[in-house]
């Protein structure tokens, strides 16, 4: 399924974005450096991005991937709302992933991760040791034109 | 006693005032947190930290979270009834226990109204420090908003106290001179808008001796520029990635307390052993307050004995490197416009202030910070900062994702490694601190 999505968005641009309530930046700077090293151009929207700005940026840049990062504990709640909004605005095939510290009590439960995947995320990289490695692999496979969802 | 007076008097009496970063959505829990802070074996002031929906001007989301029982990361002061907030404070907040509202909003007017309506007079932030690192509010608007915030505070009963957040600026990788400069400039902004009691912040960074030099520079600049204003210095325990080990976290907090005591700073905002993982509990906050107070008491003892290391720059006739850079930055900003708010806006537009790694549209984004081999925080690129003749030659260095990540984790890794391998304190503080203070920590 993701190969189809990549075919729909052949560009090399990746949008990195924080969520509306999250003011943290370091995660976004790191992701930009990492994704650039993997050969993509990055449009970094920075922290506190409202849904309409993200949608407008997707229309403008036609990204190959949207990477959402949240570390303030509201990521689960906000991520669910945002992905439903994105999927409801015609961005049905755009690969969108989310990661960071998504809950206020450490790692998310399997049920919460499933909620996010069911709502439309292609992958969820919650806070654990291997998340960045898995994310890196995901982006590298995207660069090769054949990303797959990590579930 | 109002906030500034309380801190000044307690410090003059020989105590470091310690304060948590504490905020809970549930009023009963918030109240319990304040009661526990007041009751801690330490000289404390209380904190109500607001949740991030409220900070970012979306109280409706905070209200919905309350209704649905979703957790919030702070107290939603705009979602609870005023009567609820008054009940939180009743019998806890008084002249012997001032309470400060901490938020992080570039649009603080509603929060300030709710703060003064609840009978509180102390809060914190600033037009730069609560704008650039967080969110997307235009800097010109933040300047206007903070002007109004000063007016709202002055219009209420009681002596208002405002703390700059400028000594934090992203928490890490902003060289100390720019932290000092922005903290002083924000305090001057508050002063020009009528606030008579302020505190200037400085967040612990990566190198103890450099931190002492920075606080000495901060105090010197305040003495020169904040005439006629009641001011004190507040140290923030490290605001970047905190150690994951309990010993590492406690040792880093103890170093922050020693930094405060050795530099004459009057107040310390603590971090807890849970900081790296989640929002800390009341008990973890109290433990952190008491640990910091104990470390401060030991440091006061060694200070009295004349053996605690003092501010390095203070001994240099020209104030030291941090002072020279900070003074150059402050002077360049003040030269931009007669009104300090306009001066700040113009300075950022020209790159005369430039926060490393800050993604805000108003920030030039050319300056870069980096750690030297010995852990000192310096410049990798000064962009258009007016430091050309002040900073020595900078050798070029590209910042890779992995070196960037190591820099972000330098403090955590250093303190965790020390805790894990030897159970003793990190090498980076060795030689700068007094042996008796260090030994005390090992058995905590």
From TrEMBL, chain A:
Pfam families to which the protein is assigned, alphabetical: B12-binding
GO molecular function (one): metal ion binding
Coiled coil feature spans: none
Hydrolase recorded as keyword: no
Domain annotation B12-binding: ranges: 11-149
InterPro entries linked to this entry: Cobalamin-bd, Cobalamin-bd_sf
Superkingdom per UniProt: Bacteria
Classification via PROSITE patterns: B12_BINDING
E.C. designation(s): 5.4.99.1
Keywords: Isomerase
Protein name: Methylmalonyl-CoA mutase, C-terminal domain/subunit (Cobalamin-binding)
TrEMBL record, chain B:
Entry EC no(s): 5.4.99.1
GO molecular function: cobalamin binding; methylaspartate mutase activity
GO terms classed as biological process: anaerobic L-glutamate catabolic process
Residues forming coiled coils: none
Keyword terms, alphabetized: Cobalamin, Cobalt, Isomerase
One family name in Pfam for this protein: Met_asp_mut_E
Superkingdom of the organism of origin: Bacteria
Gene3D superfamilies cross-referenced by the UniProt entry: Methylmalonyl-CoA mutase
Enzyme class at the top of the EC tree: isomerase
Keyword Isomerase: yes
Keyword DNA damage among UniProt keywords: no
Protein's UniProt name: Glutamate mutase subunit E
